Amino acid sequence: MSIITTAAPSPAARLLDSAPAGAVLGGAAHSGAVHDSAVRDSAVLGGERLAALAGCYAANLTLRPRFTKGSRWARRVLAGPGHEAWLLAWLPGQGTDLHDHGGVALPAAAAVAVVSGLLTEYTVRPGDFPGLRRKPLAAGEVSVVDDRTVHAMRNDSDAPAVSLHVYSPGLEAMRTYLLDETGLAPSRIKRAGEDW
C-alpha cells in the first residue's frame, strides 16, 4: 500500500511500499521501533526545505486517515534522510497541549501542512507578559516552527481536519507546558509513538 506518492517516488517511499508492517528509517526497514539513529544523526533540514517537503507530501497522500473520538489520530508515514513525516486526523475540538519538539539528544524543527479542514496554531509569545498568538491554517497552508518554539495545534472548527507534519531531525519526544501569567512551566514529556 502506498502512503505518499509522487511522480518519481523517492528511495524512502519505494522502501516504505515494500516494507513489512514496520517503519522505514534511513533506508532500512524494521518493525516496532519508532525512531532510528539514521534519522536522528542526519543533517537537520532548514525551515524552507521542511515546508517544501510538507507541502509535497500533503499533496501526494494516498493513505486515508482515521478519525477517533478519544483523541486525534497520528501515524508516522515516512522517514527519509534527516526527517520524518506524520499524518494526523483531528475531529472538532481535538488538539494538543502546549509543547515543544525537544528530543532527548536534539530538538526538532517542524513544518505542518493542512491537508483538509481548518486548524488553529497557538504559539507562545514570550515577554514580560507571556501570551498566545493565534494563527488559523486552512487547507493548503503550511506553518514552520523552529526547534525552540512552544506551540499547540487545535481543530477549533465544526468539521474534521487532516494535517501532515514533517520533523527534522526525526521526533523523539515532546515536552508539554502549562502557561499562566507568570510564564511557562514544564508539565510532562511524551515519547514519540508511545504517548500520542
Which strands sit side by side, in order, in the main sheet? 3-4-11-6-9
Element pattern in H and E: HEEHHEEEEEEEEEEE
The name of the CATH topology is Jelly Rolls
Report on the biggest sheet.
5 strands, antiparallel
CATH-defined superfamily: Jelly Rolls
Can you tell me the number of structural domains? 1
- Supply Rg: 16 Å
Shape estimate? globular
Helix content: 10-25%
Annotation, overall tally of beta strands:
13
CATH architecture: Sandwich
pLDDT < 50 runs, ≥5 residues: 1-41
CATH class: Mainly Beta
The number of helices is 3
Mean pLDDT over the residues: 80
Features:
about 200 residues; Jelly Rolls; 5-stranded antiparallel sheet; 3 helices
Characterise the protein shown here.
The chain has about 200 residues and is mainly β. It has one domain: Sandwich (Jelly Rolls). The protein is about 15% helix and about 40% strand. It contains 3 helices and 13 strands, in the order αββααβββββββββββ. A hairpin with a 2-residue loop joins strand 1 (about 25) and strand 2 (about 30). The longest helix has 13 residues, at about 45-60.
Secondary-structure map:
Elements: H1 11-18, E1 23-25, E2 28-30, H2 37-41, H3 47-59, E3 73-80, E4 83-90, E5 98-99, E6 109-116, E7 118-125, E8 131-138, E9 142-145, E10 151-154, E11 161-168, E12 173-180, E13 183-191
Antiparallel strand pairs: 1-2, 3-4, 4-11, 5-12, 6-9, 6-11, 7-8, 7-10, 12-13
